[in-house]
Design goal:
Histidine_acid_Pase_euk, hydrolase, globular, binds 2-acetamido-2-deoxy-beta-D-glucopyranose
């Protein structure tokens, strides 16, 4: 809209200038776009609830820096877009029921005028917590297309015949995402090539887990008390109630209806709920999600940093062993709350100060929509690089979060702002926390992450073989 207005203004100015440059032709389109819509896109304010979108980084090229080639790729991937879990489903249902009851004797007006035509998209309770399979943002589609993209990007790392282990935690939607990714990456030979290893989510896995359970309390007492705090939610409720006298929505309902928007989009091309709320309300919603990740499963919780240290440490070993000894491809699949601890452990997106809970700080570095949307993934690229004017020939590491290259703030003087593997090793060793000590892993449980080195050489789990039971681990008892 704004763009069109600007264009027509430009046209008027141009017309009235009587062709000062002696040309009848419209001005050529410039090389660069001047449109950023002030950095607003609703999908960036859904936290972990909505469809995948690429991360926003620093403009660093996704391709390897000049003189470097990737020789090992280690990915940790969240499941794709899905239906809500039962708890969120009930929250949504409660708010929707309030509107349905109101509409029994009234017609909803204003921003909610679509409601009588709207279709509650979850028609079958068996879909709850499962991957979505419909629409442009379908979860299984996301897993598959991510696989095909990476097959093209990393084609030099697989010869078309070497067997490759993959790793998924034992939760149905996660296993399904891993399989779709594998089918996308390995194509027709997926079933012969891949040895799918399913690592149970049970607490008894101890440290040998993609979803490690912490047997210590959360350090922050803020966690669990963060959802309805933004004053904008009450403003939204008031607006909708004013448009519909007698309606009694409150901030809890508004929060639930905003979640509805994100989840509906996981299964449908369009959600009218997105337009019910203003940009400012969406920005507030996004911040509540950042707070939850930060204090419950991120840098604001010491137990989470310790849990993330497990994967960070194991992958450091893989990179130091290198592709000849350890293999070139490590694709692992888990939940969002298993990725945010790893980001915290390696020091990516770690604000200098704890996020304030009483106000939105605006200039802060913890935007969960950039790192754990559905289908979010953290990739380590190990690179061998030739000598440059600034760097020695050698082995370097960089992190890619949802296709955005994110440098390590304390180690970025390598090619393309990467970090030398030896400096990364020093850097990480100074940061890693002792998982077993912090999380009080019972001594009868495994004390080390070993599955990367003693995986099973079998393809029996490559395809669905009966439903996988939910294995909710015990986290922060
Ligand atoms: C590194 O240098 C060698 C020798 O000049 C060259 O063959 C190779 O292609 C270079 N590697 C990259 C990734 O540019
Ligand atoms: C609708 O109006 C009828 C008749 O006044 C009343 O009995 C009923 O309780 C109302 N329903 C709701 C949901 O308010
Ligand atoms: C699958 O693997 C077999 C055995 O290695 C090979 O002969 C065949 O060409 C592969 N098929 C595809 C489509 O890559
Ligand atoms: C390998 O298989 C054994 C026996 O089925 C099982 O106990 C173990 O957990 C599996 N390991 C992995 C990494 O999947
Ligand atoms: C949650 O917030 C309320 C109101 O600010 C406060 O009274 C309560 O102590 C908080 N609970 C926790 C667990 O922090
Ligand atoms: C909003 O209303 C629901 C009942 O419809 C209630 O359960 C909830 O506690 C209310 N939230 C607030 C913040 O008052
Ligand atoms: C590695 O660390 C050394 C010592 O701190 C520093 O001089 C060098 O620039 C670092 N190299 C890279 C690639 O970060
Ligand atoms: C990292 O892993 C190595 C074994 O590979 C282990 O010796 C070391 O204690 C681990 N570090 C931490 C902080 O867990």
């Amino acid at each position: 809209m704004k763009f069109r207005v600007l264009l027509s203004l430009a046209f008027v100015v141009y017309e009235s200038a009587a062709y000062p440059f002696g040309s009848h032709y419209p001005l050529p389109e410039g090389q660069v776009s001047q449109t950023f819509t002030d950095n607003f896109n609703p999908v960036k304010n859904f936290g972990g609830n909505g469809p995948y979108s690429d991360g926003r980084g620093f403009g660093i090229s996704r391709d390897p820096p000049e003189g470097c080639s990737v020789d090992q790729v280690i990915m940790l991937h969240r499941h794709g877009e899905r239906y809500p879990d039962v708890g969120v489903y009930q929250t949504i249902e409660k708010a929707i029921n309030k509107l349905t009851a109101f509409e029994a004797n009234n017609t909803l007006e204003g921003d909610l005028d679509f409601f009588s035509e709207w279709d509650f998209w979850i028609h079958n309770s068996a879909l709850i917590a499962q991957e979505t399979t419909t629409g442009p943002y379908a979860g299984l589609l996301d897993g598959y297309s991510q696989g095909t993209e990476y097959a093209a990007r990393y084609k030099n790392l697989w010869d078309g015949k070497t067997k490759v282990p993959m790793f998924s935690s034992g939760y149905q939607r996660i296993i399904e995402t891993a399989r779709k990714f594998g089918e996308g990456f390995f194509g027709r030979n997926y079933s012969e090539i891949v040895d799918m290893n399913i690592i149970p989510e049970d607490a008894a896995q101890g440290a040998n887990s993609l979803t490690p359970s912490c047997h210590a309390l959360k350090t922050s007492n803020v966690c669990g008390n963060l959802t309805h705090i933004m004053p904008e939610f009450s403003v939204a409720a008031e607006r909708l109630n004013k448009q519909n006298p007698g309606l009694t929505l409150n901030s809890t309902d508004v929060y639930a209806l905003m979640i509805t928007a994100a989840y509906e989009l996981n299964a449908n091309p369009y959600s009218p709920w997105i337009d019910v709320f203003t940009r400012e309300e969406w920005i507030s919603f996004g911040y509540t999600q950042d707070l939850i990740y930060y204090y419950c499963d991120g840098p604001g919780d010491a137990a989470s940093v310790a849990a993330g240290s497990l994967y960070a440490n194991a992958t450091l070993t893989l990179m130091n062993q290198g592709p000849e000894k350890a293999g070139k491809l490590y694709f692992s699949f888990c939940h969002d709350v298993n990725i945010t601890p790893v980001l915290a452990a390696i020091g990516l997106f770690t604000p200098k100060e704890d996020l304030p809970v009483d106000r939105l700080p605006f200039t802060y570095d913890y935007h969960s929509g950039d790192f754990v949307p559905m289908g979010g993934h953290l990739v380590f690229e190990r690179m061998t690089c030739n000598q440059t004017a600034n760097n020695e020939k050698g082995v370097y590491v960089r992190a890619v979060v949802n296709e955005a290259v994110i440098p390590f703030e304390e180690c970025s003087s390598g090619p393309g702002f990467s970090c030398s593997l030896s400096n990364y090793t020093t850097y990480l060793n100074s940061k890693l926390k002792d998982f077993n000590a912090v999380c009080k892993t019972p001594s009868s449980y495994p004390q080390e992450l070993t599955f990367f080195w003693n995986y099973n050489d079998t393809n029996q789990y490559d395809y669905q073989n009966g439903p996988v039971s939910y294995q909710l681990g015990l986290t922060n008892e």
